[in-house]
Amino acid sequence: MPRRAKPLTLLILVGAALSGCASPSDRPAVVTVEANDFALAAPAQVSAGVVTFRLVNHGKEMHHAQVVRLEEGKTAGDFMKAWTDTGAMPGWVRYLGGPVGTPPGQEQRSTTLLTPGRHVVMCRIVSPDGVTHLMKGMIREFDVVAAGGGAAESFPAATDTVTLNDYGFLIDRPLASGHHTIRVENAGPQPHELVMLKLAPGKTPADFANWGLQGRHGPPPGMPVGGVEFLDQGAGGVFPVDLGPTDYGFICFVPDAKDGKRHFLHGMMTQFTVR
After folding, report:
1. Which of 102, 167, 237, 252 has the fewest CB neighbours in a 10 Å radius?
2. Same domain, residue pair 138 and 199
3. Comparison of pLDDT for 181 and 19, the residue scoring more
């Protein structure tokens, strides 16, 4: 669970919208999170229900948008004090997913279920200087309030399902070229994530992990094209992705609850070819 030094300011708050004549329960509201180096802009209040987070990266570094529910009356300040990137967070931290690492100038989407209460959205990616973006100011608190009606009640229909466990990815069928709506479910006893990588020729998910965690020097051996950030046991999310014929991978960077090693070091990464 990675993050850290000096915020910029960004004004953009964001939106939510159901359009056309689709019935309210058909289409999740869209909440846009604007990322910069190193600040996040997000709405102060979001309606409960199934919600799609849209992360737009205006920065020069990669960013993601981890969504967290804070229980027991805790605040963003409490989260910062409890923060660790080498083990499990306290039980009042509930991981709900969110858009994965997004390259500069691009956007990612991920859909999750929100219930009333206090939440934060944050970025825990590590900068080349070794400081996590969280500690550089990339965290925003927001309240989820009971919906007044019209909120989506179920996730978008999925074309594929990936189940996470200790320590692997179980997909219900091979992925083919084309558009996919992928449901991610965490069946493991501890948090997991799914970062989907499009790999450069001859590269592996391990190459991407080493590049990302060791200063990001040289050309990237792959790039995230979708996925779902940290999910607690029993939680789920959905993300859209367009696939072409090439090599892809899944990887999980969550620190293990027992030894603090990231889950890919326990074997939680896989590579496959889409045809």
Report:
1. 167
2. no
3. 181
